[in-house]
Amino acid sequence: MALDFTFTEEQEFFRQMVRDAVNRLIMPRVAELDEKEEFPWDLWKEFAGLGYLGLRHEEKYGGMGTDTITQMIFYEELARGSCGFAMATIMQILMGTYFIARFGSENIKQRILVPAIKGEKIGTICFTEDQSGSDLGGTRTLATKVDGGWRINGRKQWITNGPIAEFCTCMATVDPKLGLKGLNFYLVEKKTADQDGFVPGQRLHKLGSRCSVTGELVFDNVFVPDENFLGEEVGKGIQYAGEILNEVRVMTGMNALAIAKEAMQDARQYANNRIAFGNLISKYQLIREKFAKFWAWYEASRTYLYKCAWMIQNKVPCVNECMLAKYHSTEMCMYAVEEAMRIYGGNAFCSEYPPQRYWRDAKFLLYGGGTHEVLCDYLGRIYCKD
Amino acid sequence: MLVKQVPDPEAIVKVKSDSELEIENKYFTNFFDEIAIEAGLKLKEKFGGKVTVLTVDNKKVDALRRGIAMGADDAIQITDPALEGSDQFAIAKALAAYLKDKPFDLILAGRQAMDDDAGIVGPAVAELLGIPHVNTIIGLEVDDPKKEVKVLREVEGGKEILSCSLPALFTCQKGLNNPRIPQVMNVMKAMKTQIKKVDLAALGLNAADAGSQAAKIKVQKYLSSPKRPPVKMIKEDFPENVKSLVKLLKEEAKVI
Q1: Distance CA A186, CA A100 (A)
Q2: Measured between alpha carbons, how far is B121 from B108 in angstroms, rounded to an integer?
Q3: Full domain range(s) for residue B86
Q4: At residue B111, what are phi and psi to the nearest 5 degrees?
Q5: Both B158 and B247 in a single domain?
Q6: Which of A15, A50, A235, B3 could cross-link with B63 by S-S, CB 3.0 to 4.6 Å?
Q7: Does A224 reach chain B within 8 Å, measured CB to CB?
């Protein structure tokens, strides 16, 4: 009787509450958020006021300390609305504060984590550079040990929340020749008149996920004190990155579930109303097949993602499983949004109808947590060794 | 606050038999009940006191959990196998039996449940308790020291202000307030809250007082909505097709 696929009554209730908050606060604004391509400060403040930013952090810092399954339920429901807003929010909840919560001193937690959970200070994490992203070993941002701290030099790209961030967890190497073994994480704050720090660089304009602002962060000989080194010892950064990447991949898969389902629900409604050749288009087998395929792949993805969430929660090693789940679910999502575009016919190609937004947002999920080319190369290598 | 969990408007509802519906397992808290909870919480914030949410349901308690998540102090579920098949009057009887010896100033309920749209339970509870009742209020002003209330309601062509003494029962209409979105801290609290259960025996009622035995209204037959008629294609060329269309609109659709 060990195998159990049910959510608890409490988890179902939690899902309903998140869904309701998303329906009331975000859903009515989805198209506007996409069109404006600006960070919605008013929505951020309202949403942060509900307390969800502390979902995975300890109660003594204003968090809730929920389990992984509950967090994944939140990610799945949140992304039903605006993908961009979900990305900005999840950056704050998960990646942007993960290492601060894990390794930060009490002083750092009070100064950074507590206001981050309240939504007052926005944070981010910096992995990607111009020549490295999925290839973390290619990181060139350099951390040099100096008296009392570290000097950081480099440029980070594709940083979600970068243009509005007040602090970041920056991955840097002590020596590029060491590859993955040289990597570490550092807390760096934004440069002000009183403190050294990063400077936001160029903002990127994206195809999808448009209301999360994304850009470059520049680290120009930034000094950070020893306290800002986030880790137990030098060179363990890649091991720590591995911990968070499992969660990031499953989280990304949850977002994919949400976008795929919303896209196909809209498409179903369209197909049940659109008439061609005297019949509703949902009566035609070629249209029905699209829904059937989506349904099968969606259910498989969802079941496997929650299995991965369960493995993370129960500390079962699951690096490969989380990669597989991320790969499968985001490809499933691409299938769903592509087919939703086809079901809408020519109407899909204009911004008055939603499928083009789902399609653009779904594309964004392909890259975070490893491109599929990198993931599949790795997974194929592992599989063949077996 | 009298609350009910009702099927989501998106839930698929099918007629299973003459007297039974098959409802997809998608429920949410009746929106008018949320307005009632919000009104209660606003009064609590102003005057103090306690807000209790109360439901009659053998299975679904999420309306109670939502009440707690919004800020209610207590949640009571009246539940008993004998309640199955109750009509609105039997539900009201159970609620009134619970409330009759409890100290309360005000009972609030939604103007109607969004599933059966009956709007009976609230007024029936007030009648059984012998307290004043006003339905579909959109304004509420309490004078706590005098134990008096002024309420506003919409009437044909305008509004009216009514007053009565406490205790009283009001049913709440859209426009009274905007129900708050629960904070996650309260959601977590609601997830863990033990819902207090009360059965008919504890209310001094027996099986004959509730359920289908006591129902004054019986469902004779459920009927599905008529299916959308098939599309009729007019295959003639102009101008015959226009003539045919006008004929169809006149004689079949009867819209011109």
Answers
A1: 9
A2: 11
A3: 5-214
A4: -65, -30
A5: no
A6: B3
A7: no
Chain mean pLDDT for chain A: 95
Give the whole-angstrom CA distance, residue B120 versus residue B122. 6
3-state secondary structure of A40: coil
Contact A73, A250 (CB under 8 A): no
Q: Kindly report, residue by residue over A20-31, the tens digit of the pLDDT.
A: 999 999 999 999
CATH superfamily assigned to domain A123-235: Butyryl-CoA Dehydrogenase, subunit A, domain 2 (2.40.110.10)
CA distances to A50, A71, A117, A229, A286 from A298, in Å: 30, 20, 32, 41, 18
Identify whether the C-beta of residue B54 lies closer than 8 Å to the C-beta of residue B76: yes
The list of chain B residues with pLDDT below 50 reads none
Residues of chain A positioned with their CB less than 8 A from the CB of B69: 17
pLDDT at residue B230 in the model: 72
Cα angle, residue B159 at apex, residues B157 and B161 outer, rounded to 5°? 155
Q: Does A16 touch chain B (CB under 8 A)?
A: yes
- Tell me yes or no: is domain A238-385 CATH 1.20.140.10: yes
Residues A44-93 have pLDDT tens digits of: 999 999 999 999 999 999 999 999 999 999 999 999 989 999 999 999 99
Please report residues of B whose CB lies closer than 8 A to that of A17: 66, 69, 182, 184, 187, 190
Rounded to 5 degrees, φ, ψ at B138 are -120, 5
Residue ranges of the domains in chain A?
Answer: 9-118, 123-235, 238-385
In this prediction the ipTM stands at 0.83
CA A49 vs. chain centroid, Å, equals: 21
A275 lies within 8 A of chain B by CB: yes
Number of domains in chain B: 2
pTM: 0.88
